[in-house]
Design a protein that fits this description.
The complex is a heterodimer of chains A (321) and B (367). Helices cover 44% and strands 10% of the residues of chain A. Chain A has 11 helices and 7 strands. In chain A, the strands form 2 sheets. Chain A has a 5-stranded parallel β-sheet with strand order 1-2-3-7-6, with helices on both faces. Chain B has 367 residues and is an alpha/beta fold. Chain B has a 7-stranded mixed β-sheet, with helices on both faces. In chain B, strands 9-11-10-13-14 form a 5-stranded mixed β-sheet, with helices on both faces. A two-stranded antiparallel sheet of chain B has the order 1-8. In chain B, strand 2 (42-45), helix 2 and strand 3 form a beta-alpha-beta unit. The chains are: A alpha/beta (321), B alpha/beta (367).
Chain lengths: 321, 367
Amino acid sequence: MYTQELVTRLYKRMSLIRRFELRLAEIYHTDAIKSPVHLSVGQEAIAAGVCDPLEKSDFISNTYRCHATYIAKGGDLNAMMAELYGKEAGCAGGKAGSMHLVDMQHGILGASAVVATTIPVAAGYALAMKMEAKMTGYQRVVVSMFGDGGTEEGCFYETINFATLHKLPLILVCENNRLAIHTPIEKRWATERLCERVATYGIQTHKIDDGDVFKVRDTIARALNHIRQQGEGPIFLECATYRWLEHVGPRDDHQDSYRDTKEYRWWQENDQIIRLGNMLDEEIRRRLDNEITEDIRAAEEFAENSAYPADKELYTHVYAS
Amino acid sequence: MYTQAERQKEFVDAPSSDVRLIRYVDALREAFEQEMERDPKVFLFGLDVDDHKGIQGSTLGLQEKFGKDRVFGTPLSEDAMTGVAIGAAMAGLRPIHVHIRMDFMLLCMNQLVNMAAKSHYMYNGQVSVPLVVRAMIGRSWGQGGQHSQALHALFMHIPGLKIVAPSNANDAKGCMIAAIRDNNPVIFIEHRLLYAVDGYVPYQSYEVPLGKARILQEGDDVTIVAVSHMVMEALRARKHLETAGIYAEIIDPISLWPLDINTIVESVRKTGHLLIVDNAWLTCGASSEILTQVYEACSQTGESLPKMARMGFAFTTCPTTKPLENAYYPNSRTIAAKVYQMIKGHDQHWDLPVDIKTEIDAFKGPF
């Protein structure tokens, strides 16, 4: 029921994200990347499913765990790797690092290291898009991504209220991996009825609890159509997911006391990359895998061969001219 | 040097035909109107900006003229509203976000410090944040500990922010226009006792550049650098001092960051005495920064240091009751007495006449 083209596209995006990040984990000990990395391994289906129906001119807003969405939205892979290496050719000249990836050309708003900070910023961008549409007649949409921890911040609710009041072209996506660093959701939430809470603002909410990449994609595609045609948002989506690695860093920390290996096994068995790989013709899959290998190798080579920024760069862009 | 004549009513020269006397608050309103006419990307929002009182009159009529998309009230969500302003600014709009008390900006510190100030740098110039944040500060009688604070020093500490606090109607209009056109986040501090003060203001649009101090009155004996409403007190202190044969040069930095230290240093070289009167606490404040920079400038050239002193709010929470509140703030008499001692010696005391009437005496509440 899903076209081969779609399966190919989603598989390639998800697999690129995972293998790129696993490569980061592999080389992390070399200290080529002197910056904290928050890896999305296990959560790729959400980024890929959310970004697939977006146009290049739509925007996505990220958390510090932003590698997946950056890649899924079409961010420049070489510039990303160079950024992680702290090189001048990085997407932010080496000033951002892993936690603040940005690519405005491809509709990727800069990420923040402070939880939930980007949620209202995304709404502000959406406000500008709404004003723009009154002149252009075309409604661009902003997607705000955040984790379950982000919904505990006051600005999350402040933003939903304001965005609903102004019917902003905004899709809010909660990646619920049930962990805030090491603290499980049971210790943080009075109830898990997040969609119900949000629905009281009078907006559409959707919950996908099995990580199905097609469900994520279809829900976003419908939300986009609704917002573009009716000119009315926001729409809220909660996606259950699972973080395979530690909060920050390259390690699989399932031997640590806070982890639940049964849950991990369930998510491994339902892994969307394996699922979609099996839906593909063996030969096509191999070709895609080879392309991914080459893309990652090229990005690494690009980053290694790029120069570090000159000392004078320290003082550029403190103030805008 | 940038020494355009001061615009305070009581010190001003005969006006030309292209200016007229209007209140500080009306000068601000005119700045919004002219900039919103000029640039459709400018919009103004914040709690109560569209109500019948219009932020002391500074936003009255703007919604009627420019529509609800460009002038609108907000929920009480200072944190998220600041984020919204930042996002809109990144998208190319020019938001003006209004706070009816600067104290409420403490709810916005994450967005202002982590996003507004840093985005242009952290995203390597891919975005800029052309944002104006209007912040009303005290005093007025009885506003107490959480409705009167002047927190410019907190923001001066952060690279990426600009902070201005104009003290007269002419500078309020010109500075606001410059702030709106600036491509950086600008914290625009408005002292409520200045709102009702008249000044000569040109009809046409003009910019008062950010980062330029203004010499309001020239004098050879002492340099007084005063901030925001303390400029009014310093100008009155100057009149007191004249009767004792002491002539003070009054400098309004207007822009606290970037700071025009050169104008201050030049003046101090002439007078050999520097008194800073901040409209805030002293500890780690604007006065600390100005003193340090004057010291650094003098050390670099090896010239002798001027006599330096500073005044500001008592290092306490602002009390509500009138007698304590009066003791909390510097005024023209305490400023003049301080200067008198700096010039004549610490054992010299001077019994000053009381000012006839000041802004605080004319103030009527309750807002």
